[in-house]
Structures are given as structure tokens and as C-alpha cells.
Amino acid sequence: MVDAETLAIFSHERSKSLSRREWKFRLAGHGYGIHEIEGACIATRLPHGTACGVLPPHLG
Predict the structure, then answer these.
(1) DSSP structure string for 2-59
(2) pLDDT tens across 40-51, in order?
(3) Residue of 16, 44, 15 lying closest to 30 (CA atoms)
């Protein structure tokens, strides 16, 4: 699971975004990315793609 601070950033940016694509773009500005693996959304740190944890279903 992703830590509380990172999850707050993801939730806040999701609430301001009109689409999933815009959300991913906004997260990239904070240094994060999302990869989908076997139906789960994995939060990653850019630029190396280091995994931070699995996002909860309501954000995935």
C-alpha cells in the first residue's frame, strides 16, 4: 500500500482531473507514475519507475 502522504497527493490530483490521462500527466509533475499490472495499479517514482505500492481500487 502507498503511504498516506503520497495517497493524499494522488487523491487530490484525481479530484482536480477531468480524465485519467490528465491525472497521469498531473502526477508526472509531482514525480509519480502509474503502471497497470494484472489489473492492479502500481504507483511508481519517476524517472526510474521504482514501485511505491499498490493503489486502492477507488483510485485505480
Answers:
(1) --HHHHHHHHHHHHH-SSHHHHHHHHHHTTEEEEEETTEEEEEETTTTEEEEEPPTTT
(2) 999 999 999 999
(3) 44
Q: Can you tell me the distance from the alpha carbon of 49 to that of 42, in angstroms, rounded to the nearest whole number?
A: 10
CB contact at 8 A, 15 and 32: no
Residue type, 40: A
SS3 18: coil
Cα–Cα distance between 57 and 51 in angstroms, integer?
17
C-alpha cell at 12: 487530490
